[in-house]
Structure formats: C-alpha cells, structure tokens
Design brief:
The protein is of the alpha/beta class. The protein is built from 25 helices and 17 strands. α3 runs antiparallel to α4. The radius of gyration is 40 Å and the shape is elongated.
C-alpha cells in the first residue's frame, strides 16, 4: 500500500512537470514509470481477488516495465538516445519466464530470482549511462542517484543469494506472514522513494540551469548575452590589471544584413545570424568570448593579447570570413528558389585596455564609436578608438600582408657578411642575413620586417628558406673551388621552439649536399634559456650531425657560466653594443676583454660583431679575439659580390689590407 501511495504522489509531480515544461526530456518517461509501477503493485495487492496469472505475471511485468521507463527517462534526461526496444529485451523474456513458472512450475523463489536478476542488470545499465553523460552542474544529484541505484542492486543481490540458499515453499507469496521478504521490501521502499526524490531534484536543477542559461545566453545563437559579457569583461580587466596584460574589445556590426532580413524574411535572417556566430567562433581562441548584443551586433573580447595589432589581425580574419558567401536553407515564401546564397560584410570597432579605458561600459562605448568610424571609412574594415593607433596598425597590417606576398613571390634575398680571422685577415666564413628586395621600395632592412615575421609566425617559413638558400650557395662556392668557408645562419627562438630543427637541418643538408661541418647555427641566449633541458638535447643532436653552434649577441642576455658549461657551443659572438664604444668607454672594454678571456677558458672561439674602426680591431687583436665581422671589413653583400670578394682575396694573397683596398676600389665596402 505504501508503494501505491508513493507512486501516486510522484506520478502527480511528474504530470505537473510535463504540463508546465513540455519540452523538458525525462519527466514524461518517469510519469509512465510511476503509472506502470502503480498498476503493477496494485495487481500484487489484489492477489486472491484477481486470477494468479494476472496478479503475478502481469503485475511483475508492469513493475519491470516501470523500471525500464525509469531507465529510458534517465537516458533522455542526460541527452542519450531513446531505446524503446529495451521493453522487448527485458519485459518479454521476463513475462515468458514468469508465466512459465506460474503455470508449469509454480515456484515463488524462481519468480523472485527472475525479477532480481533483471532489476540488477537494469540498475547496472542505468549507473553506466549516468556516468557516461552527466554534467558538472548536476554532479551532486547524479552521485546520489548512483548511490541509491547501487544500494538497490546490492539489496537484490543479497535477496538473490538468500533465495538460492533457502528457497521458499511452493505457493507462498509476499502476503504470507512467514515470508521473510518483508525486510527486503521495506529496504527497497526507502531506496526507491529516495531515488524518486532525487529524480525530482534533478528536474529542479535542470530547470534552474536553463533559467540561468536564458539569463546569460542569447536564445538564437547560444552565445553569451550582454550581461554575461560584462561579467567576463570586468573579470578580464581585473586580471589584466593585476598581471600587466592587455585586452581588446571588438564591436562588430553586419553590413547589408537588413536587406537580407527584409527581402528573405526573418527566418532567413535568424539562420544567417546563427551562421555568422559559428564563423566568428572558429576564428577565436578558447580564452576569448564572442557575444551577441542584439539585432546584428556582436562583440568579441580578446584577453591576454601581446600587441595592439593582434586585435586587428583577428578583426581582419573575421571581416574576411564574413565576406564569403552564406548558403541559407530558408528562402522567400513567394519565391522559394531565390536568395539561397547571400553576401554580407562586417565593420569592426576596437577599443583597448589599458590604452583607452579600464571601465567596462566605457570600453564598450568606445568600441561602438570606433565601429561607426569603420563604417564611415567604407565598411568592411576595422578602426580603433584612437585614430593614431588605427593608422599605425593599418600600416603594420599592410606591411604584414606585403611580406606574405613577398615570400610567395620570392622577393627575399640572402646577403653575406664576411667573418675574418683576427691574425691573418683571411675570410674564414660569413653570416647569412636575409633582406627584402621590394620592386617598389627597393631594399628593405630586416629591422622593418623581422619583428613582424616573429609575431606572425612567418619567421618559420623565412628561416627555413634562408637555411636552404645558404646551404645551396655554399655548395656552389665549394664546387667553384673556393676554400672551405663556415656559413652562419641565425635560428630564431620561434624556430628553435616550434619546429624540429634537427630534422630540418638534416633534410636541407641532404638536399643540397653542403658539408655539415661548414654550417654554423647561431642561437640567442634567451631562446636557449626558455627550456634548458630540451635545448641541451637539441644542441647535442645537432652536434652529433657535425653542425657548429654559436651563441649570438652574447652578453645581452643571461650570460651565465652555469648554462655555458652545459651547452655544446663552439663560438661566442660578442654583441655589437659592447664594441661600439671601444676605445672610448672603459666599461665596455673591460666587459669585452672578460668575455674573450672567459670564452677561451671554456674552450670556445670568440668572434666580435660590429667592428667599424681600426682602434676597435687593434684592441680586439690585443685581447686575443679570434675573429670579427663588421663594416670595417665589409657590409653584408649579395652572393655575387661575396664571390668577387673571395676571388680578390685569393688573388691578393689572403692579405686583409689588400682585400679591403680591392673592395674600396670596386665600391663594395
């Protein structure tokens, strides 16, 4: 009787839920479960009033059907597929067996064993499904549900063992005073009631979650709304202020959206907005936020950006993506075949923290004002709240785009700066330096484009090209009969960190045939210190290939003896900043002398960069520096001119002064 009352109460609760929230998955199946369980237990209670076959077989089958309805309801509640064939899998075999044991072999134990086995199996399946698909927001409720389902399975398992060891007499049933199942049913009553209560709690938690979602999400695009964006923006400003970071706010308005909405209808406009939301999301990192403010206005929050132009790159990518055609399934009712493909655009305004403001509402207003500036500038572009930043960033972005085209159109060149022996003045090598030969602007120095290449990742492509071109040229000089030269190629920190430099070098050397012992890779101190253990491993692998290794710009970074002892380096290159003021600045002279002495003590060769005067050369020679490079000997020159320099040196007997005189005569120094 207690089961009947509990099932009736929860049936009413689930019926009310289904009526008030018809789209909520789960309660409808649980309502069916309560009805089935109520009918099943009612049949058991009426045993003696109705035929045994009905009270035993049909009633137990209804109880089993109710348990399966609970299982199906849980599956749909947790967004798993419905499996109505579970009825056939569990109920039909159970009904057949129950009928068999009622008519052929009327054994109470056999019937109860069947029910316990099936219910244990169903409980384990439900626990498996809950564990496969449960949200963090419902973790506490689902853990409780798993616990009570496990307890029911354990109770049935104990009952199963008891029935097998002490079978009941034929013909007795649960209403018999001698029947030991009363304790078992009392325990099941408590666990079953608790299970139903937890299911009601799950419904309440799910509804509360959906209410919170409606309060913070746009219902059409499922993006955060203005409220949630402001919360994240405030938090982002706090984090940025604490860590000294920057963030950007991008206000985005669709161009020509109203024309699509008016001509094709609101359904097409809604579908277009959904597709726009998807395209914007694909252009962002996981830490970024895109929200819809309403209508055709979106806003993007970019946290933890390094440079102001990072926001412009994202803006350009979004503008380019939204300029591509959209395919809509919704069409005009009067002309179903019209307007399937539509083209729109976007204008974006950008405000920055901390450059423009640290107030969330003010940042949004500034981004909005900048967006209108972008529209007035011709649409399909971006604008910063500051006109000065807009001008600088647009120039920088334009240069980046030109650099990409320059790489594709092979406008880059490798120049070579001679490295000379300090004692005899013989050219012993050269440093390969990249230059950009623009058809319109002439020779562009690396200071204007290498920083952009580093920021955008283009340095990986440029670095690989310089390495390959240098090795090819070195092999040509070798084939031409010139004495062996060491060619030094710079490796950027990004190359060292992001690509397999060992594999790249091995591939290039195999392709070009250039000897590994004549290739020298120059690495910066900062690049090596980012991950010392990995750096040591990479350098050892390079050394195993026979590659020479040099530390570039030595003295400007960490300059630690501890890491110098670990790294298998051949050459230290003294940075130009220490050479510039020799012999006028005593401190630089002492630092330079110390680096030379330290390098020799550790077994390294020492090369000075940026030597421009005879006084500097005399000082370095006096202190025992091994080699030098700089404008005093030659500026970086094209491969053809460098070959002439080698030829001149050979003709003039490897004398430095004669070589320099030859350069001055030919106008190449």
């Amino acid at each position: 009787m207690a089961y009947l009352i509990v099932d009736a109460v929860f049936a009413i609760a689930f019926a009310v839920t289904v009526r008030r929230h018809p789209t909520l998955d789960g309660p409808r199946e649980w309502l069916a479960a309560c009805i089935a369980l109520f009918a099943g237990f009612l049949g058991i209670c009426l045993r003696g009033v109705i035929p045994d076959f009905v009270s035993i077989v049909m009633a137990n089958s209804l109880v089993l059907a109710g348990v399966i309805c609970v299982w199906i309801g849980i599956r749909v509640f947790f967004r798993l597929r419905r499996h109505w064939w579970l009825f056939a899998l569990f109920v039909l075999p159970a009904a057949v067996l129950l009928g068999l044991f009622t008519t052929v072999w009327p054994s109470v134990s056999a019937r109860q064993i069947i029910m316990s086995v099936f219910i244990i199996a169903i409980s384990l399946c439900i626990i498996r499904d809950i564990r496969r698909q449960r949200g963090f927001a419902l973790l506490m409720e689902t853990n409780l549900l798993i616990g009570f389902l496990g307890a029911e399975a354990v109770i049935h398992a104990i009952r199963l063992i008891t029935l097998i060891m002490t079978p009941a007499i034929t013909g007795s049933y649960i209403l018999s005073p001698e029947q030991p199942d009363r304790v078992f049913f009392i325990l099941l009553f408590f666990t079953g009631t608790a299970r139903l209560l937890i299911m009601v709690t799950l419904i309440s938690a799910r509804l509360q979650g959906e209410l919170n979602q409606l309060a913070t999400q746009d219902s059409l695009t499922q993006l955060p709304n203005r409220r949630l964006l402001l919360e994240r923006l405030k938090h982002g400003i706090d984090v940025a202020r604490r860590n000294g970071k920057q963030l950007a706010l991008l206000m985005l308005d669709l161009d020509r959206f109203k024309a699509v909405n008016d001509s094709m209808g609101h359904a097409a406009g809604d579908e277009l907005l959904q597709q726009v939301a998807v395209r914007i999301r694909t252009r962002l990192r996981d830490v970024d936020t895109v929200a819809r403010l309403g209508g055709d206005e979106f806003i993007v929050l970019l946290e933890d950006i390094v440079h102001p132009e990072d926001a412009a790159r994202v803006a350009e990518d979004i503008v380019a993506d939204l300029s591509r055609p959209f395919q809509l399934s919704s069409a005009n009712e009067n002309d179903p075949e019209s307007g399937r493909e539509v083209k729109i655009g976007a204008s974006i305004g950008i405000s920055l923290h901390p450059q423009h403001s640290d107030n969330p509402e003010l940042l949004m207003d500034q981004a909005d004002n900048a967006m209108y500036e972008a529209k007035q500038a011709g649409r399909g572009c971006f604008a910063y709240f500051s006109e000065e930043i807009t001008t600088v960033v647009r120039k920088r972005i334009a240069l980046e785009n030109r650099l990409r085209r320059a790489i594709e159109q092979q406008e880059l060149r490798v120049f070579y700066q001679p490295q000379l022996d300090m004692i005899n003045g013989r050219i012993i090598g050269a440093e390969a330096l990249v230059r950009w030969q623009s058809p319109t602007e002439g020779l562009i120095p690396p200071i204007h484009f290498i920083p952009i290449a580093e920021e955008t990742g283009l340095i990986l492509t440029i670095g690989e090209w310089v390495l390959r071109e240098t090795c090819r040229q070195g092999q040509r000089w070798k084939a031409a009969g010139f004495l062996p030269l060491t060619l030094a190629v710079n490796v950027s920190p990004q190359q060292f960190r992001r690509c397999d430099i060992n594999k790249l070098v091995a591939t290039v050397l195999a392709e070009t045939g250039f000897p590994a012992g004549q290739l020298e890779l120059e690495l910066t101190e900062s690049g090596l210190m980012e991950n010392q253990d990995k750096a040591v491993e990479v350098l050892n692998n390079l050394r195993a290939q026979g590659i020479r290794l040099a530390i570039d710009d030595f003295g400007t970074g960490y300059s630690s003896l501890a890491y110098l002892k670990r790294f298998p380096v051949d050459v230290l290159k003294i940075d130009k900043s220490f050479i510039d003021d020799i012999p006028h600045l005593q401190d630089d002279m002492e630092i330079t002398a110390t680096i030379i002495a330290m390098g020799h003590t550790l077994g390294f060769k020492v090369l000075a960069e940026g030597v421009e005067t005879q006084e500097q050369l005399d000082f370095l020679r006096k202190k025992g520096c091994d080699a030098y490079q700089g404008y005093f000997a030659s500026k970086p020159i094209p491969a053809e001119d460098f070959a002439e320099l080698l030829s001149a040196q050979h003709k003039n007997g490897d004398d430095l002064d004669k070589t320099i005189n030859h350069l001055e005569t030919t106008g190449q120094s």
